[in-house]
């Protein structure tokens, strides 16, 4: 039986999952997850189990092996109930990448170098082929802040940013605080892309991505300055 996947030198192994359906819109996002399961075979088995109703396009082991489970042109089931920049059907609009990792439940730790070294060229290929905006390379916690915290505060976003694969940390934070109250901050957070129906969780997700040293759900001056600069950069065309 022929493989459902095109040849790709970045992919080491194929493990076709039955858990997919047809997309309803073009690809314009990448969502990064962690498996929070060990060993990786357990996560792969779950993503290939029809009863689990969960999958991703790719899984990358801690040793750097890239495993493809669902063809990119199909809708994998990785995002669950989620929202980003007006898009409520994130599964239809995104490529999902699972990172083999114990997660917060099984002993949270830094991500393996080999894993990130395998992620970078794969992500580069996806971003370039679909012309994905930097702001749409997101964490699972960004699109589902009330439910998810992965890949978490130790994920090395700065390494991806060096290769122009996600938004970089804002360089200027000295332009003051334009938000008169917490409500104004939350509206700005929604404008940036977040679901703010659970305000504290939305702020925690923002902090986990942009100010991971302190994750307390409080919109302090540093958080306000970061969000303001992110919005300025986007509105002035320095980020997309």
From TrEMBL:
Its EC number is 3.5.1.28. The keyword rRNA-binding does not apply. SUPFAM superfamilies: N-acetylmuramoyl-L-alanine amidase-like, PGBD-like. Belongs to the N-acetylmuramoyl-L-alanine amidase 2 family. CDD domains: PGRP. Pfam families: Amidase_2 (PF01510). This is N-acetylmuramoyl-L-alanine amidase. Keywords: Cell wall biogenesis/degradation, Hydrolase. SMART domains: Ami_2. Residues 15-152 form the N-acetylmuramoyl-L-alanine amidase domain. InterPro entries: Amidase/PGRP_sf (IPR036505), Amidase_domain (IPR002502), NAMLAA_amidase_2 (IPR051206), PGBD-like_sf (IPR036365), PGBDSf (IPR036366). It catalyses: Hydrolyzes the link between N-acetylmuramoyl residues and L-amino acid residues in certain cell-wall glycopeptides. One of its GO terms (molecular function) is N-acetylmuramoyl-L-alanine amidase activity.
